Amino acid sequence: MPQHIRRTLLCATVAATLLAAPLVSATTASADPAGTGLVIREAYLKGGSAGAPYNHKFVEIGNPTAAPVSVTGWSLQYRSATSVGPFSTSALEGTVPAGGTFLVSMAGNGSAPVGADLPTADDEATLNPSGTTGTLVLADRTTALTLPAGAVAAGTPGVVDLLGYGASNTFEGAVRPVDGGNTVPNGLVRAGTTDTDVNATDFSNTTTPTPTNAAGQTAGGGTTPTPPTDPTPPADPAPAEAVSIAQLQGTTDTSPYAGRNVVTTGVVTAVYATGGFSGYTIQTPGTGGAVDLTTHTASDAVFVYSSATASSVTAGQHVEVTGGVSEFNGLTELTVSSAAGLRTLSDTVPAPQAAAVAFPRTDAQRESLESMLVAPQGRYTVADNYTTNQYGEVVLASGTERLLQPTEVARPGTPEAAAVTADNAARRITLDDGASTNFLTKANQGIPVSWLTQGPVTVGAAATFDAPVVLDYRNNAWKFQPTAPITGATPAADLPVAFSDVRTAKPEDVGGDLKLAGFNVLNYFPTTGDELTGCTYYTDRDGDPVTVNSGCDARGAAEQEDLERQQVKIVKAINGLGADVVSLEEIENSARFGQPRDAAVATLVGALNAATGADTWAYVPSPAVVPASEDVIRLALIYKKDRVAPTGASTILQDTAFTNARQPVADAFRPIGGTTDDEFLVIANHFKSKGSGTGANADQGDGQGASNADRVAQAKALVTFSTAMQTQYGTDKVFMLGDFNAYSKEDPMVVLDDAGYTDLGPTEDADEWSYVFSGLSGSLDHVLASPTALADVTGVDIWNINSVESVGLEYSRYNYNATNLYTDDVYRASDHDPILVGIDLPGIGATTPPGDGGTTPPGDGGTPTPTPTPTPVPAPQPGDEAAALAVDGHLRVGASFRLTGAGFAASERTTVELHSEPATLGTLTADASGHLSGTFTVPSSVTAGTHTLVVTGPTTGTVTLVVTVDPATGAASALAFTGAELTGGIVAALLLLAAGAGLLVVRRRRAALAA
After folding, report:
1. Distance CA 473, CA 465 (A)
2. Mean pLDDT of the residues in the chain
3. Are 987 and 888 in contact (CB under 8 A)?
4. What is the pLDDT of residues 671-726, one digit of tens each?
5. 855: β partners
6. Strands 150-151 and 159-165
7. Residue (of 429, 445, 427, 439) closest to 497 by Cα position
8. What does each C-alpha distance from 575 to 81, 256, 638 come to in angstroms?
9. How many C-beta atoms surround the C-beta of residue 815 within 10 A?
10. What is the CA radius of gyration of the chain?
11. Distance CA 57, CA 48 (A)
């Protein structure tokens, strides 16, 4: 007996009305006349200019309190005087001593800055502030601030202290004028640490800058002097002591000659006259080569910090240098402050050789190679590229494996997790570009970004060294430096490293009759920032807005052109998955903008269908009951209509555990051609993030991040919800997909494992992960299967197209650099990778989905199934004809209307709902011919506008009809429709609606299976 199978065509419309989003009020740091917080104590921003007393710029941070204050995780930020865009940022690290100061140095003006050296700075900033006009901010975060022009309100989030000087448009109270141009040698100094929040009052011009670091050292190298009781004559400076470089370096991480003047000789091996390092490395002649790290305990090379002589040397020269020895943030340096400290030698000496060594696993062994030429041996793998587009650096791991999140493979707090942490530290090394250039600052966006310009640098790729590099220590990390600065303009053949191409054009073949996937769509918001009030933006190098920063509820694209760039990547990636059901995370909740809740997902489905050239995809409508309070992002389910159909309306979990997260949504699906035995339940999830939490939700330091307690509660609520949904939908085949914000061995995943669900990623695809954070790979995204569902799984693939790619490829970084890294392909469509699962169902045979315009979707693996011999079609039965819904005339708020339908199964009982403002209207039962008829009333609570009638039955599935509801009084309105491109059939249906008779025809396919 043949079984009649139905396919439902879903159609949704989007209301055009947008409500202005409320402005986010700014509350920040108040005036501090009592001196109870850190302040900008001094700003010397003309360093290196003609007549300048110092060759570097600096900002001095003061601490008036009786306790040391850490600035790790803070930043110094700068914005030009007339800008209203995001600030340029430079992260800080270190501690301001109690009652002391913290010195942050910056590069001086000009190609050969003049003036004396600063005392050893406590940190370096990559900013390049104007000497005469601009805005500096000491911020308690590393993310870029975006402040409105004018007086900054006391207590503005992120602002610890702010200095607007010259003609700046942003200031505290009133701007501080600056005397003269860059050639007038002066700076700005605060009177002590008093902060009245009025720049003009708190700061004054000074012609005698006093840079002082955390150790109390001043520009002369000594500590801040205490007036002696009796005057004493000054001591003669100590003569420079002749030492070898190995003696200078010593056998520990601190030079035994720190604070003393020495003279030494060496061969120049690397020169960094440009790019911000302002120096060069020298190495003892003839050293290096076959180095035995068990006996080699002192380095034979040293970095010479000297803006006065860096442009005077070339690689291969034998030189004698005289200067002071210091430790700069862990790097041993010899500072040559003038040309007199450099002498070129004319003798012939053997050239240093690159040390042919595998990457040392201990700091002691690395110290013995500090600043030496090395030829890295063994294999290296790209572990992180997050800051590549900003600082031109790539994190590598020695060996063939990535660096892993400890809690991805071991329980938190266990010796096994500690072992992973130790292994990460032993294998991590950063490949730099020989410069401190910040490619995201306005001054540097015209420089092609290093490494990425020459080709993709993908996490997991092999890095092969073709030339020697220098091992040094900067920014609290061991780094490989090229022997000269590079940029994106450097020919690929001249780079010391090449990267393999590990990109995949399609997912692996996971087999199965059907495929499921989870996809985080990276704040996909069709409601763009320019449609709302109050939005501030991240802008490209031309100042054009690209993405929303703050000030409104939108989180995505700034303008339509930006949305289109985002959307084309997402569409290609989803269509390329070859999946039949996809759960979506981070999609706009359009109800927050006065639109139907499903408007955003309808827009995405329209774009997916436009790309396939067919009516391939549909979305599961929101249920009649939705949470009273929801996030601005939500979850959604989409599916291919000729492959599966929902068996009923969706359900959203209503549980207080999810008040700070996105509420899970569930629905069951039946394959086209399948039976009730083939039905399966899909639950989409997006748990609370790791970024914040207090009390029990504070970060416990065990590697699980903040809000772990809430994620555990959400996991428990999900287990209960799944059990209830299995009863409601009548199947125990459950797949729970989404972003659980928990790595595979963390507590929330253990809850789900203990409940009998299997995490398919670690069990079926253990060598791939969905996310990269701080250089560590792991999976926050999971697909979990119940025992019955697990038996049907044929394969799993985490398609690494997003997390492994540089953020510079995102639509959100479009035109951020002279090299525009954006392309309209699948790579970096999001920051999370999609997970694809294949399943075999007993009641159906494997088919090739035609949902991508008639071709086999990428990732399906194999060729299309041959067209079968046509089977004779039996005479029509009730439910065989195209399903249809119709209403008589226009609908009005509070008034009754008549709904009719055809094409349903005989005696099928259906529910009737009005969506957008979800309301259950009642039920209808089809007669023997499959016809429906009934009268309903539009609730008085419904707002006039575009809505969707949803009729759901256990056999037919879901049938929808777009209608316009008019106000209780007044003239009837024409049908409103906005959104995706429409196919001819839908257009015809809408024309019928506009004519006064709402009708939606739903296509069906009849399939016969042998009994």
Report:
1. 19
2. 86
3. no
4. 998 999 999 999 999 999 998 889 999 999 999 999 999 999 999 999 999 999 99
5. 852
6. unpaired
7. 429
8. 46, 63, 12
9. 15
10. 33
11. 7
